[in-house]
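During the second half of the funding period, the structural biology subgroup turned its attention to how the target accommodates small molecules. The most pressing case was flavin-adenine dinucleotide, which had performed well in the primary screen but for which no bound structure existed. We therefore specified the complex as follows and requested a full 3D prediction, including the ligand pose.
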Amino acid sequence: MGFRTSHHLAAPTGAALSQGLRPARLLRLGLFIYDHLGGRKLLPATKTLDMRTDPAGAPLQPLYTGAFEYSDCWVNDARMVVLAARDAADRGATIRTRTAVVAAHRDDGHWALTTRNVLTGATETVQARLLVNAAGPRVDTVLSQTLGQNSAGQCAWSSGSHIVVKKLYEHDRCYMFQNADGRIIFAIPYETDFTLIGTTDQDYFGDPKDVRISDSEIDYLTKAATEYFAKPVAPDDIVWSYSGVRPLYDDGASKAQEATRDYVLKTSGGSGEAPLINVIGGKLTTFRRPAETTLTKVEALIGAKGAAWTRHAKLPGGDFPATGFAEAVAALKQSHPFLDSAYATRLVRLYGTRAGILLGAARSCDELGVHFGADLYEAEVRYLVEYEWAVTSRDILWRRTKRGLLGDAIRIAELDQFLAALSAPTSREQKLA
Ligand SMILES: Cc1cc2nc3c(=O)[nH]c(=O)nc-3n(C[C@H](O)[C@H](O)[C@H](O)COP(=O)(O)OP(=O)(O)OC[C@H]3O[C@@H](n4cnc5c(N)ncnc54)[C@H](O)[C@@H]3O)c2cc1C
């Protein structure tokens, strides 16, 4: 999807950091290294801002007089994951969503896997020459429960939560605030009308599926934001929150926050025994690095082709220059003049040049089919079902688009009905069955 630059205002300085110059000096040194070692080509250089005159100072308490600005790339995590899956499917991979590997054992030099579709309950057996266990936080669970192997507990868990509030400021830059406990809290423009505030980071021992934001996390995030913003952020301002569990390689750190965020590959099998590669830890944004390292291992273990090729590969819809977002929006508006700027921008942000497939030959919003409210039409829903494995309204509204943030503006019951009708077998299919 190409990328958009995002300007970060790192740790506004002033009264809050007035105990000494060390934090500011350290930051300046860090940013100097960022500028000079990072191989910066497209991103603007770092700079110092006077928060009394820069618009970035306006939403903050007047205590802050200076800030450092650096630029980085941001990515919509959910879009990146689904586009990586779409890319793999376009290149011949079979993607089975909502399908759990429920058992696996080595059988005569192969892996024999049993999978179960969690919606239909249908099971299937699959044979594989090699198995990659990339189950994220569940990597140990898969090892011990699904593969029946002794797992020494190689993956530690840290939970993290974000809150979303109505937008706190108009400009498009992010803030990185130094919190009193030494952690960084960020505030990022989110889905046009909102601000995302995150994140927390604490040891987690529950079931990953049960992870939810706690009252103490709400308190922590709202208080941290209130420290800096002129208008206090209160728990009642939260319109949505989400939480997750980070898989961290257990490197013996006493606290999850201190554990490495890097990934580790652990391999077993080979020489006659079907190989297993466990992927432990790792970041989302650098996903191609562990993926390529894993494939290099696959090549060494079973001779399948694993040469690195992703360095310049674009995700589906990202076939326009990294600095060409505005031009891509203009091109979409030219081919579909009925789109207003906000709608065209949203479509390009989510689907890139594939927005053209979604819109087809439509010449008006009416021709996009059933209108579910706001800017959500049948054409987008059908696209998400056909190309992005969406099944439920939750998939559409939260996992793929975040249109759920619009609340009552979207008629969810109508969307549910539409999706149910779309997945129901036609009378011809019923007869054939
Ligand atoms: C609050 C928070 C903030 C974060 N911020 C960032 C950030 O800013 N930048 C960044 O790079 N990373 C960030 N991360 C980390 C990032 O989300 C994870 O590192 C990343 O998701 C790990 O990817 P993964 O594919 O290894 O695991 P997951 O994304 O957890 O994927 C594992 C998959 O395996 C599936 N699975 C599990 N068991 C089975 C089974 N038996 N059969 C079939 N499938 C199975 C799961 O359903 C899941 O789809 C953050 C994480 C959290 C929680």
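Two results from this model are relevant to the next phase. Confidence is low (pLDDT under 50) at residues 1-5, 14-22. Residues 176 and 186 are 4 Å apart (CA to CA).
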